[in-house]
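Objective 1b: paired records.
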Amino acid sequence: MKIAVVGKGGSGKTTISGVLARTLGRSGHEVIALDCDTNPNLGLSLGVGDTETEHLLTLRDMVDEGTADHAESWDEILDSYGADGPDGVRLTVINRIENPEPG
């Protein structure tokens, strides 16, 4: 299942995404949360913490600047640019996925 939360700024997207991800994780679902916002704060809502959220943002910026390599696969994105949060949620902060794998 894939769920996207979209809306205007300040409408509660991050809060809803965090609650939904953690609820699904607690229910035993494998949850991968992608924070694609220009002001990424999903890590804070998920309970990942300030330091790890900032680290993920720094990694994203390094890829954008060309000082870090783009991931070649979905697994590499999660391994290289992801962090584990409470309730079994895996978080990554990205701008876009180029040439996504089908499925």
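Objective 1b, second protein:
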Amino acid sequence: MRKDIIHIGAGELHYEIQGMAEVANDLQRLGLSISRENIGDPVNKGQPLPQWLKMIVQEAVRCDETYGYCPTKGLLETREYLAAKVSSEARVAVHPDDILFMNGLGDAVGKIFGFLKRTARVLVPSPGYTTFTAAEAAHAGSPPTTYFLDPHRNWLPDLEDIENRIMYNQAVAGILIINPDNPTGMVWPRQLLQDVVGLAKKHDLFIICDEVYRNIVYNGRTNVSLAELIGDVPAIVMRSISKEMPWPGARCGWLEFYNADRDEGFRKYVDSIINAKMLEVCSTTLPQKVLPAILDHPEYRPFLAERVRLYEKNANLAHEAFKDIDGVMINRSDGTFYTTVVFEEGVINNAQTLTIKDQQARRYVEELVSAPMANDKRFAYYLLGGGGVCVVPLSSFTTGLQGFRMTLLETDEKKFCRITDTIKSAVLEYLA
């Protein structure tokens, strides 16, 4: 073209979670049976939604107003409901106007980074969830700025390391926290979360906190919301119904803005996000309409607790399966519905293979791995072709670590154990 039309950050946009799904689709068309452990969709993994929840949605569908636009920020009664819930547990005043509904948190991430000044950077965790790391990199047109989650410390970051990355990079304006963390399953301890808030206050930064999995915590852990500790530090908290309810297809998430009026620059930044949403008119009305009724239903908490017990059981089964394998490391997940296995440095290379009995699948995988790629992605392709299990290579989560992330969503314990046994056998063969 006569003019270069490519955005400076276009090359940073990669989402391996779906990339692995496309390879799985190709292998399925060749006749392989695939277990999809790559994406966190409880509904597609067969977790049934209760009838009482469906009845609430059905009642809302009968109302004409459900089909119309809602206010740009979201339904007032729902924002009032959420603001009251946050304020009841928090040390920060949250008003309905501090809440902005989005069409899923993908929409929110796009606006948070899309309307951030290009020279302003946000420290994101590494390993880090791809949507965040890609958005942070794309907005600046350079690799993301990261802090390290250490697998040798149960995935906890080092506070001194975070502060050094703040002090020696004056472009850093904010810090991203994912709590509980995706992809690692780590739950932030209260004191560490408080210390990061202290760093933000000390260095005049804002915080972004993803609390999508806030109520999916187990193994005796308790989760602390940012609202309890934030004090007067400016922050944006992200929440959603997609994982907890679960209703991922609703594309319904929201932002909570804390202390927006305490800093003029942060206030203008928040206003730009709100104004960008105004250009779209509003977010989807139906899920907002039913959200309070679902959360207040007497069966909601028992329903969620039952699901959390499933994830706890699967997390512990996965930990037991991998913990004694030489050459790999696994920390027990205490939140979310993922677990991450790390290959120790140097144990995998670009010459290792797995047995693939299906000849078409073998040729397909061998063609894929003939291209240069991370060694853990190579393993993931062989696992797909030889074992029929789709996982996500850890290197795709913006880290130099090698490994893979798998879900804990399978409801059938025997099937889940077969999946972990298949992966375990593949790891042992690959490292032999």
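Residues 149 and 157 are 5 Å apart (CA to CA). The chain has two domains: 10-47+301-431, 67-296.
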